[in-house]
Amino acid sequence: MHHIEQELPMYREIFPYLRDRQWRLWIAPENGGGFVTSDRPVSIVWQERPTVGSMLGFASPKSSLAFPLSRTMAIAGHFDAQDGTYVASHEQVATINTIVICFADRQVYSDDEQFR
Questions:
Q1: How far apart are CA 22 and CA 61, in angstroms?
Q2: Has residue 115 been placed in a domain?
Q3: Exposure pattern of 28-49 as b/e (b: 16+ CB <10 Å)?
Q4: DSSP label at residue 14
Q5: Is 98 helix (H, G, I), strand (E, B) or coil?
Q6: CB 3.0-4.6 Å disulfide test: which of 23, 40, 41, 66 passes with 76?
């Protein structure tokens, strides 16, 4: 309960930046490996090279926030993209997996050792 009480103010602070993003649901293709997850599955990355001194966070306008929902689904939010549901290419699955792996602290989880 103590952790929840500490985290609630943070959620209130970042909620507007989550709400204002356009969300894309990515579905992994059936004939390939799915999405991996990790002990830190939420990732925020720049969509394009930032200017020197730029800080990356939930409010950063040119950022992408992504995380896996399951082996077959991942979600990505952008401030300037079209929302919707898309079937991911193998390359898109590999890109999302690479980002998830880079943000992991110690552990990466997959139900298939041959993930992309």
A1: 12
A2: no
A3: beeeebbbbbbeebebbeeeee
A4: H
A5: helix
A6: 66
